[in-house]
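Work Package 3 (structural annotation) set out to generate three-dimensional models for the target panel prioritized at the project kickoff. During this period the team completed the workflow that converts sequence records into discrete structure tokens, so that structures can be stored uniformly alongside our sequence database. As a representative example, we reproduce one entry of 214 residues exactly as it appears in the project archive.
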Amino acid sequence: MTDFIEFLKNTTYPGRGILVGKDCVYYFIMGRSVNSRNRVFTKTEDGIQTEAFDAFQMKDPSLIIYHPVRKCDGHLVVTNGNQTDTMVDAIKAGKSSKQGLMTREYEPDEPNWTPRISADIMDDGSFEMSILKYNHGRCLREFYAYEGCDEGMGYFISTYRGDGSPLPTFQGEPMEVTLPTPEEVWEALNPDNKVSLYTNVKGEVKIFNKHLGD
């Protein structure tokens, strides 16, 4: 099992990341460009959304303004893009979130081709994680289903394996990691690149925003 705090301290740019543990989920965003860093998390009726901190600095909102977290019919959906809405729409239509994701692919941001990462956490503690990634001009969709996890550990997936040009896509199954507190995760994220963090621990939601002094 990987020490999650040490992993974050030694990885300057995992990009966006989802960690699912027992009765909890964390989601963070990072940024290298002014546009990506110009964001905050704000609460909505059914979850959270990203917003521009300074509207005058926002250039292209297409891939950075979305609803990362939404609740729907016993599901908590967490993603790094507007596929959140696709998954929720599928659930509302009586389908599975996986069926919704089968209609989506990686982000069109050549040369990085940022993968779409998602988690669907059910009320019974089971959950699914997925990554839609670029693979030789086609979309490779990887899905992982879990019946739950033990106390003190979680499963983590991110968009990237670290910094680079182009950015290296996450590889392999979600990592088994230790489960730190929300405050420990926020402190461990690279201070230059971190933007926002959402945590939900046993229903208690906390939001950390660098632009708001957290």
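The two ends are 29 Å apart (CA to CA).
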